[in-house]
Every structure is written in C-alpha cells, then in structure tokens.
Amino acid sequence: MKLFLGVDGGQSGTTALIGDETGCVLGAGEAGPCNHAGAAEGRAKLERAVSESLAAAVERAGLDAATLQFEVACFGMSGGPDDKREILARILRAGRLIVTHDAATALAGATAAGLGIVTIAGTGSIAFGRGPEGRTARAGGWGYVFGDEGGAFDIARQALRAALRMEEGWGPPTSMRDSLLHATDSGNANQVLHRFYTPEWPRSRVATLAPLVDRAAADGDSVAIHILNGAAQDLAMLAASVRSQLWAPGELVEVAYIGGVFQSRMLRERFRTLVELEEGSRCGPPKCGPAEGALLEAYRAEGLNPDLTYRNR
After folding, report:
1. Do domains 3-102+289-310 and 112-285 have the same CATH topology?
2. Once rounded to an integer, what is the mean pLDDT over residues 3-29?
3. Is residue 78 pLDDT above 80, yes or no?
4. Model confidence, pTM
5. Residues near 109 by beta carbon (within 8 Å), at least 6 away in sequence
C-alpha cells in the first residue's frame, strides 16, 4: 500500500494526515505549534510537534512506525520552509519531501483546483493566491512585530491597548477591560500587560483571548466593534492586494477564508462584504482544511487527484 502524508504546521498547532493511494485518510494526529526553528529551543519544539502529530496519526491508522515510508510527504509550515527541511528529513522516511509555506497548502485545499486566493487569519495573518497561469503572489505574513494585521494576536493586543487607554483616561470605556482582567487573573490592565511579556503568556496564548473581543462586540461594545471591523478591513485589503497582482479587474476569482479569527460571525460577514465589493470576487469557506491541502499537494506531486474520504468518520 502506498502512503502519503500531509502536515499543516502553524503558530496554533500541528496536524498530520496519512492517506493511502485512493485518497482515503487512514489516520490523523495533532500536536502543539511548530512555527519557528531558528534557535535550539524552536528546533526542539518543531521536532516534538511533528513527531507527536505523526505518531498519533500512525497509531490511529494502525500502521507500523518502524517500517513506515511515504511516497510523498508534504509540509505546509508557518514561518517559511527554509530552516525546517533538514529537521523534517530526520523525522520520517519519504521518497519525496515537499516543504513549503502554510499558505500554499491552505490554498491547495481551499479551492477546487488550488487556484484563487486564501486569506488566513489564525494567530497571525497572510493572503496567498495562485492565478490561472500558475503565477503566485502573497500579501502580509510579516510576523507579529511588523504585521499580522487582523490575526488573533493583533486583535487581543488591540483589546489590551483599549483597556490601557481606558485606565489612563484617554480612551473610551469598554467592557473588554473587565474581561481581560478576569481571563488573566489580574488586578488592572497594566498587570495584564506585564503578564503578556512573560513566558507564561506566549503569543499563541495571548491570541486565545481574541474571542473576548467578539463577545464584547456582540453585546454592543463600540470599541470591540471598531476592532473587529478594522481587522476585517485589513484582511480584505490583503486579499485585494493579491487579486490585483494576479487577475485583471472584473475577472472571476474564488476567495476563501481560513483560521480561528473567522469564527467571529461579525468579522466574517464584514470581510465577505468587503471582498465581494470587487467585481468578480466570490468569497466563501474553504472546501478542505490546511492539513487536507497539504495531503492533496502530496498526491498532486505524484500526478494523482483523488477526492479525500475518511476511513474512521
């Protein structure tokens, strides 16, 4: 039996899928984030996350890890592929190893033919597209210091900034202040700020507070509504930038959205509205998830294009 592997390695978590040559997914496994590999700690984190997610998928598939070899293994990695190939090659055996960025594999699963635009908003954000002639383009994905507008970390950061301004008397009142204090067991917004600078609150954990903004907005908090509308606009602008690089005005383009940020109905609908203001743009959810996209890319590398099915669903 020929086996194929697809792995989505992101800032929020790692998912591995093992499939046979017919497109049947035999096993899936999940583990922690693995987005950085520059320092020794990051490399260890990457190796641990990939090894654990792969081991879980192997177990669920009922395969023998000692003799396991893949025809093709495809990894879509947040933070880029350049510093990860050597580490991944030590973890598994594959006839062909593909290591690319997570936006490319997300798009591979998001649309029927892997053409169009995908806007990803998880912990961070990026838009990536592939045009009808095979050319690709991206916008965003600069990391939390210089970019990631509209991502969950950015939304949570803006919520804390609003709480700090409220405490200091130069910002409007917002219910998000009390929500942040409760979620972090803090006495004031300044204490929340200092917690976020400690190892106990890495970016991925700060990002989990983004739903507090959505709940506040749903309750009518004007500051929270402003944050979500701004995030939706930033994400729509990323998609528009990619569109302008690959398609002529008015051409039909499929735009998909992926990531936990889009669980916010308010943000999602605002994003969809803004994207579809551009004539020819059609916006909707992805057909498949990022890990499924990585697995599909593994199949396509062998000239296969199966419809994915799940043995244990």
Report:
1. yes
2. 90
3. no
4. 0.82
5. 286, 287, 288, 289, 290, 291, 292, 293, 294, 295, 296
Look up residue 135 and give its two tokens: 């050319």
Overall average pLDDT of the 154-166 stretch? 96
Q: Which residues contact 285 (CB under 8 A, 6 or more apart)?
A: 256, 257
- Residue pLDDT, tens place only, 226-264: 999 999 999 999 999 999 999 999 999 999 999 899 999
Topology at the third CATH level for domain 3-102+289-310? Nucleotidyltransferase; domain 5 (3.30.420)
Structure tokens, 49: 């996350």
8 Å CB contact between 15 and 56: no
Q: For residue range 93-128, what is the model confidence (pLDDT) as tens digits?
A: 889 999 988 888 889 889 877 889 999 998 889 999
| Helices assigned H by DSSP within the chain | 40-61, 85-91, 102-110, 152-168, 176-184, 189-195, 203-207, 210-218, 222-246, 265-275, 290-301
- Which CATH code is given to the segment(s) 112-285? 3.30.420.40
In the Cβ-directed half-sphere of 299, how many Cα atoms lie within 13 Å?
24
CB 117 within 8 A of CB 106: no
Lowest mean pLDDT among 66-80, 127-141, 161-175, 193-207: 66-80
Domain ranges of the chain: 3-102+289-310, 112-285
CB–CB of 213/163 below 8 Å? Answer: no
Residue type for position 173 = P
166 - beta bridge partners? none
